[in-house]
Please model this.
Amino acid sequence: MHHHYIDRFAYQDSPIHRLDPRAKILTVLAYSMVLISLHRYQIPSPGYLIFPFVLLVLGNISLLFVAKHILIVSPFIVCLVAFSPIFDKTPCPITESIVIGGGWVTAISIMIRFVLGMGALVALASTTRFPELLKGFEKLGVPRLLVTQLRFLYRYLFLLVDQAMHLRQARRARDAGRGPLSSRWHSSAGLVGVLFLRTLEQAEHTHLAMMARGYDGTIQLLKQLRWQRRDWILLVVTAGYLVVLRWGNYLGDFFGV
Amino acid sequence: MSELLLEVEGLYYKYDDGTQALCGVDLKIDRGETIALVGPNGSGKSTLLMCLSGLYFGQGTVRIDGMEMTKSGMKEIRGRVGLVFQSPDDQLFMPTLADDLAFGPINLGYDRAKVQERIDDAASQMQLSDMLDRAPYHLSMGQKRNASIATVLAMQPSLLMMDEPSSNLDPRSRRRLIEVLESLDTTMLIASHDLALIGRLCKRTALIDEGQIVADGPTADILGNRTLMEEHGLEVWPETAG
Amino acid sequence: MLAMHMANELLTPAVAVALILFAAAALALASRQTRLRFDPAKVPLMGVLGAFVFAAQMINFPILPGTSGHLGGGVLLAILLGPHAATLVMASILIVQCLIFQDGGLLALGANIINLGIVPCYLGYILFHGIAGAAPKAGRIYLAVFAATMIGMVAGAVLVPFEVSISGVASVPITEFLLVMIGLHLLVALGEAIITFLIVGYLCKVRPQVLGAVADKLSAAGKGLSSGAVIGSVLVVALLLGGVFSLFASGSPDALESITSLEDDTSKVLVKQNPDELTAKATELQERIAFLPDYRWTSFSGMVGTIVTLLVVWGISRILRGRNKHVAQITD
Ligand SMILES: Nc1ncnc2c1ncn2[C@@H]1O[C@H](COP(=O)(O)OP(=O)(O)OP(=O)(O)O)[C@@H](O)[C@H]1O
Ligand SMILES: [Mg+2]
Model:
């Protein structure tokens, strides 16, 4: 599994970290939407780089980290896109004299868009603490129960992952990572089973601890989000930027430029 | 003149799987007392605390401030009994410490100002004032323990119950915890195996075994009684033996 | 094991939004069915169960030296908790995978929740209970788990090519894509089925009471998995894979292709833009550029098929060898 501790960047501080999560969510969504609305034979212009690049750089996120991360999540799309050139040979002119198969254009376009979209998503996730992100989603209309559920998931994620590692080590101490497949499968299933039982126990205890403090099904958080001028600025600037990028040429035609 | 705070009469509790964990517990606690609950593993300490905080309901009566604890009547009683669970991971589940401290008071229906006041009080009592914005699970074990206690203190319960408050603490954190608990003036019921902690904090000790209170009296008498302690699988506290 | 998370870029906005709306509606329904709103204990439970699945995925099930699989979780949860709760848990996992680990895009969440959550959980649940019957023996339970996992997971995976080709962004012929997805997920589901059964069996043996109502039904699973069942399921999967690959290799005319008529309109647009002379040049050029000419594609697939079959056979032999040496389980 590639679940390294990406969360850590979210605890830094930067102008981007300080933005309201809602502003970041909305702009990243809009940006992703514009990206996927491009035609498959259309290669995003370099201007599309600006949005993720600005967020990441101002957010103090290492670009190397972003690149590594994108690489980790890319195998499926790479495999899929690699077949495009085989199946789609519609001629596509790049310049007057260079013409290549449409499949190549699609493949390149999808990969560029994938990298850009991922860049934006990484920027969102690594400049916003997860609980804040959830607050943002909640305020944007994602149902409360789902958000609460996600809070608990996040709260107990690292705890249970730690337990899983301990169980794994304990087993390794006994079988040295060897042994016939069938017994290893049995022991693995046993470890997962133990983990499941502990999970139920943990959930039960947590619930009792909540009951002891008067839990009645709703959870209220203390600090509410504060939408500030800078959030408006981000929203408006991004909106303008996206309109120009995506529909700039139509606008140009319209105004006769 | 002491004032009766908690009264337990003939309390029985049976788990779903048939384990009879409590078999007729009788216990009285006065306001202002600090009582230790000792007993071997599986004797029913945790179960008793669960029943006293209105999380489990068995047979028999439990009265706090003269009000009987029933499933339906817990709304009024909730704020009067507080239980600190053994593992801070059970107790701390909110994104920030401040949120965790606020959880109880908000559920008790207090307004913002009062909630804030409770948070500040509890945090300063447990020496956590500068950590309110931290995620509870990023605290050290000692801080987590203090935080768990603070979450309950924020509700200002009449009776503060703790299940093994000093487990998993290193000697220094444990010493600090004892000091902090000494400074509180709440009525406390502490289930623990930590004889030094009990000796420091509790004047009175109740010994529970197989779901019954088998001895109840001054701490020195109980913990120093070799035959009694060994009969119930415990050790004498060297400082009282003699 | 091998979660194929859909990416934003394979979908068009309309498809992405439609899938998100559908997933949201299904989740709302599931949430109502689990009565989350009325039973406050369930909210933390669902959350912690999501964390469990992540943690469980840290535990490896070795397949070949250097390769191993892990629990996916959907069908296991559906069997243990029912389809509604399982779907909610799977959805929360996919959301966290997207938001924290960026596996799968935000706009593709709808697709991922449907493919990896809703379909495997509901279909798996129905199939499991349909096949297991009232008081099943161990063999029957295994059969039910096997079928539920196979069909549940493959059905979810099969949606991917449809979603991709309805969107029409990536130009991969749907038939081939379908066959590849089915083939891969047959293998994945084989592992998942065995893992699921072993875990269910372990829980039945150790703490049946936590399983509540399903415990009685599943109790026979505690007896363990016979090697016959494993061999049988490996054979079934090998046969199915054989079928898939022969379809693949035969290069059957793309009947499904007609569903997506995108091919025409885009090429039309482009051809119109191109002066004739350019088109001619292009066709000539493109022959040189294409890195795998058509005819090689079939033999390529044949090759893949052969390799996979060899691996499966090798896997069987490994499993059998292990079985004989050490019947004792270390888990007790
Ligand atoms: N959830 C449960 N389900 C069934 N039986 C339980 C449960 N929890 C505790 N028991 C049983 O009830 C009895 C009392 O347990 P309890 O946890 O109250 O003991 P304890 O005094 O707190 O022990 P320890 O010192 O180990 O914490 C034991 O026999 C135990 O096995
Ligand atoms: Mg206990």
